[in-house]
Amino acid sequence: MVLRLDYRQADFESRFAAFLTTKREVSVDVEADVRAIIAEIRARGDEALHDYSQRFDRIDTRTLGLAVSAKEIEAAFEAADPEIIAALEFAHDRIFSHHSRQMPKDDHYVDALGVELGSRWTAIEAVGLYVPGGTASYPSSVLMNAVPAKVAGVERIVMVVPARNGVLNPVVLAAARIAGVSEIYRIGGAQAIAALAYGTETIRPVAKIMGPGNAWVAAAKRQVFGTVGIDMIAGPSEVLVMADPDNNPDWIAADLLAQAEHDVGAQSILITRDEAFGAAVIDAVERQMATLGRGDTARKSWADYGAVIVVPDWEAALPLADRIAAEHLEIATDDAEALAARVRNAGAIFIGRHTPEVIGDYVGGSNHVLPTARSARFSSGLSVLDYVKRTSILRLGSEQLQSLGPAAITLAQAEGLDAHARSVSIRMNQRGEGPDGGR
Amino acid sequence: MVLRLDYRQADFESRFAAFLTTKREVSVDVEADVRAIIAEIRARGDEALHDYSQRFDRIDTRTLGLAVSAKEIEAAFEAADPEIIAALEFAHDRIFSHHSRQMPKDDHYVDALGVELGSRWTAIEAVGLYVPGGTASYPSSVLMNAVPAKVAGVERIVMVVPARNGVLNPVVLAAARIAGVSEIYRIGGAQAIAALAYGTETIRPVAKIMGPGNAWVAAAKRQVFGTVGIDMIAGPSEVLVMADPDNNPDWIAADLLAQAEHDVGAQSILITRDEAFGAAVIDAVERQMATLGRGDTARKSWADYGAVIVVPDWEAALPLADRIAAEHLEIATDDAEALAARVRNAGAIFIGRHTPEVIGDYVGGSNHVLPTARSARFSSGLSVLDYVKRTSILRLGSEQLQSLGPAAITLAQAEGLDAHARSVSIRMNQRGEGPDGGR
User: Fold this and answer.
1) What are the pLDDT digits (tens) for A47-66?
2) Residue A5 to residues A12, A278, A321, B240, B427: CA-CA distances in angstroms?
3) pLDDT tens digits for A25-50?
4) What residues does Zn(2+) bind to (chains A, B) (predicted)?
5) Min distance A387 CA to chain B CA atoms (Å)
6) Domain covering A3-23+235-364: architecture
7) Smaller CB count within 10 Å for chain A: N or C?
8) Which fold is adopted by the domain B396-429?
9) Which CATH superfamily, name and number, covers B31-108+121-233?
10) Catalytic site includes residue B74
């Protein structure tokens, strides 16, 4: 049974607070296993990759090769349904165009004292992109992870994807071609993450690893963090829908189920001002669930983590929405734009009755990799910023050193750092002694 | 003895590669201890904080109170050396002014199909700032962590600082006052991190925790990550100086020692085109070391991790600099500006003979919290971006849904997600049925 909460009930706050802390992820302790796999890859490189692929994916990469060849990629692209290719290209162009607006600008200026300051953005040289196998192998995620890298100017985009029994999803390969992925290897699991972080004979290492994966992949990303950068560790997906009773309950039910069908840990929440509307949506969910290919997953997610919250007015709902800090927030009300402007914590907001969250999953143009599990309180969705880094630049001449030096010396001395103080004072006391006189 | 490498030697590449992977941090396994401390704070709140403070810091917070009072802060400010206060205020104003340029701008536009897209930046509501006790208790770090939060518009900036034997550094309190820190608690260690993440009776939880700390603090930050955001886990500091023989060896030696005196794990590297100049700098380092208050620390750091690398020309040095990816890079050469433009991986670059890195530690205006241990390959120094988060916004009317819907349905079906497809198709097939007709 889906959870029902009513704001006007005396115990609402305690029930809502408990609901917020519900853990939706099963923790699997694979730390030690993963540590051993990483050590093997570091010690034996390609040979270890071959052995793990044989064992876990039942595929002979010694014969097939670790790299997916250009010919294989071409063949997958040619064999794919032209309608799917067209949809991927449509999505690609919209994602590329939107992300092009995100490229941060360099800044360089001279302040009133003549000090030159700058911020310079450069692309990360090489990134790895993990693509899961099986049912979670989404071509749309290939676009969402690779396109911002391309926009940022990353030179090497290295994709890894497990080929269970030798099989690769041709649509995933087609998406990689469309997105401009540079290299693809048919490997997965913790061993693929280790290969990306440390390199092997065949695979040159990358500087940052992106993309979702199972518990082994997540643990491996955590363990190699520091040697390489990683993106967020994504949790199960969630949607919060704020809908008034004027909506068609079937539309809203479809949106809730679109989250629920992802994963048994996914979460779908409806906030409404009308109890009867809430009941109608619950009925529609039950009805629609029966017809879904992944109905069992959706049913479990909805029963375990779904919720319908009735509020007296939207004023009461806003603080709840900020506390939920949903990955996806749909606002299907008359004054949706005004309400959206007042929400502080959400990964993405979908405004109005004709903006189902699913549009954002594929073709809206914005990124579908968004902060899950309340992390929208402190983090953002994937963007070009995740593929660049900033170098700050400072330049003083001897005049500027005379202006700034005394305060630096005072603070260095206050912190007990003699060499810090000397590094400034030695230059101030030998003013103009440098070979270039001033600057 | 400091390591000397010569680019022209046959074994240079293997020796340089080995040098790059030198681990400079002592790993202390405190995971289990920290897990127990966090559990205690979650279970017993303030009472557990009082107990730990008594035990680890020998201070009776039951009597003194966890919070540092406004009166105490005022008293520290009044008692501090006016020259230090003036230097802190000078530094504050320069940091504030520089960081004000970093505030990202919202973006909102309507594309050719009539789809509205937006990116909206909002401040994180509350951040915690860890300030270490003892010799690593730096007032300058309080400014560097708190000022960008203030610029971003963070409402609550909550500082924690251990008061060993009841003693707090008055200059740290003064810096907090100048930076506009909202609350200060006299607690430290893993227990302080747990209190910030989960809250206690006295301390309301924050959404993100920043600031350096010892092994316990670092482990606690890793363990609470997810519940709250964290900044990078800072490693020991490093500087790379590229200097030609026209420099005064004493100036360069002072800069190398300014890193080395921080920590026995700090690293100071000189790249020069002239072996004799390298030898002169090494002599100057030895001479200056004897006169430093923290000479023992500097001596150990220099002997264990210092290096002088001789290259035939700057062309050869650039790829080495990118592989080192130094936290701080000083370029003291004739063509410093041109060389700097060609460096890709560095946290901050200090250009010319009159820009010692120490200026950036205190009064340059840029942030001194920078990526360590080669992580400048994939990450950036602290900035206003670390205190804000982005919400993406999407709005379609029924016309736009007709344009984008078919591709979304095609991709949803290709991914086997029925409810995704239905969430779009149900709206397309009932065009205009929503109560607002179009949008």
Assistant:
1) 999 999 999 999 999 999 99
2) 7, 11, 14, 59, 28
3) 777 789 899 999 999 999 999 999 99
4) 259, 262, 361, 420
5) 8
6) 3-Layer(aba) Sandwich (3.40)
7) N
8) 1.20.5
9) Nitrogenase molybdenum iron protein domain (3.40.50.1980)
10) no
